[in-house]
Design goal:
With 137 residues, chain A is of the alpha+beta class. Chain A is 34% helix and 31% strand. The longest helix of chain A has 13 residues. The two termini of chain A are 29 Å apart. In chain B, helix 2 runs antiparallel to helix 5. In chain B, strands 2-1-3-7-6 form a five-stranded antiparallel β-sheet. Chain B has a three-stranded antiparallel β-sheet with strand order 8-9-10. A two-stranded antiparallel ribbon of chain B has the order 4-5. The radius of gyration of chain B is 19 Å and the shape is globular. Chain B folds into two domains: 140 residues, no CATH class; 68 residues, no CATH class. The longest helix of chain B is centred in the middle third of the chain and has 15 residues. The chains are: A alpha+beta (137), B alpha+beta (245). The interface between A and B is medium-sized, with 31 and 28 residues.
């Protein structure tokens, strides 16, 4: 998948779960002012209560290049099992030390963490924004 | 449990004081009338015991009112809270009333006057107005008839009467719908609702994960998530009202 925003979104949604996506759709709408809106639906393998997919919208800027580091950060959080639901289990300082030890630059660390914490995927039910998904320390 | 309010909804249905907590009902006219017992089945009015004003009793407040409403006897409820800010958050609204807040009748009347039109403050004033420091605890004196009238009013006002208790679900689908409702923007649950939700979640095979102190993120408000019932359910944050422990 070449679209880094959709790739980021896919990985981001998987941060809080160990389940697999069995449905994912993403429609990208670009605006003139470097803003894009990605909307679609997803459903996880462990969503057994019913088979209704969750609709979502994510609005994001295309000229924010911190996304590359944030995407890598997501993968590290998953690999090192540092997520507990929507919460990053370790302290921010500890995470920075981990990344620093991996050779990350200080600016890249700050940017990736900020981008991750700023990400908010809006959850849509019956055509209305009812809730959102985001992670936190 | 010192922060509980006697009107809070109890997980077993209805509403009640602190579970296993410290409400003692004594009736100088009937000797001491302890009311309560475990579970939610029926109300016992005992002749001469000092009992706990339990969830069961409060859950049957209306039956109790019907049973003894005509007595109009005075009843003293005593609680020993852990802190003196028992009334600091009334129905999740920080109105700043504390135990012993009103030293005089005038202070009480002034507060009510300054919060005219504010139902929350007015109701809280009705309760807090009757509070007086009592040793290590607080003594609240109401007429028997009055307290239940007040409780009934609160129920109606909050839309939290036993019949309209929102933390209910009979099927997994209903449970999911409930979680969706509770996770909506602007929604939050109080302590008693959290207890109910815990029980309900366990009944459906899930578990509540607490995030009481989010440190950094888009929103740093205490919330819970439901584990074990699918990632969509898990992804929903249920916000806790102010003061929820």
């Amino acid at each position: 998948m070449n679209d880094i925003h959709i790739k980021y979104l896919l990985n981001y949604l998987g941060l809080g779960t160990k389940s697999e996506l069995i449905l994912f759709s993403a429609n990208r709408f670009d605006s003139k002012n470097h803003q894009i809106k990605i909307s679609g639906q997803f459903r996880w393998k462990d969503d057994i209560i019913d088979d209704n997919p969750q609709s979502y919208v994510w609005c994001v800027s295309t000229n924010d290049f911190r996304i590359t580091g944030a995407l890598e950060l997501i993968n590290i959080l998953k690999e090192k099992d540092l997520m507990d639901g929507d919460r990053i289990k370790c302290k921010e300082g500890e995470l920075k030390e981990i990344l620093y030890a991996m050779g990350w630059a200080q600016k890249g660390i700050e940017g990736a963490i900020e981008y991750l914490l700023d990400t908010e995927v809006l959850l849509i039910d019956e055509s209305a924004i009812t809730s959102s998904y985001f992670v936190h320390f | 449990m010192g922060n509980s309010h006697p009107n809070m909804i109890d997980p077993d249905g209805g509403f009640g004081g602190p579970i296993g907590g410290g409400y003692t009902a004594s009736n100088p006219f009937l000797g001491t009338a302890g009311v309560g017992g475990g579970g939610t089945s029926g109300l016992q009015i005992l002749g001469s015991v000092s009992g706990v004003l339990s969830a069961a009793m409060m859950g049957n407040a209306f039956a109790f009112q019907n049973a003894v409403g005509e007595l109009n006897a005075s009843v003293t409820y005593t609680e020993t809270p852990k802190s003196n800010n028992w009334w600091g958050n009334f129905w999740n609204k920080p109105i700043g009333i504390k135990a012993g807040e009103f030293k005089t009748q005038k202070e009480y009347e002034d507060f009510k006057q300054s919060n005219k039109g504010d139902e929350t403050a007015a109701e809280a004033a009705e309760w807090a107005g009757a509070l007086v420091p009592f040793g290590g605890g607080i003594k609240i004196t109401f007429s028997l008839k009055g307290i239940f009238k007040s409780i009934a009013n609160l129920f109606t006002w909050r839309g939290l009467s036993k019949g309209s208790n929102r933390i209910t679900a009979n099927t997994l689908k209903e449970f999911k719908d409930l979680i969706w409702d509770l996770s909506k923007y602007g929604s939050e649950i109080n302590t008693a609702e959290l207890r109910q939700l815990e029980k309900l979640t366990e009944r459906f095979g899930g578990k509540i994960r607490f995030d009481l102190n989010p440190i950094k993120g888009r929103v740093r408000k205490p919330h819970v998530q439901i584990e074990g019932l699918g990632s969509q359910v898990h992804g929903r944050k249920i916000w806790l009202g102010k003061g929820v422990k």
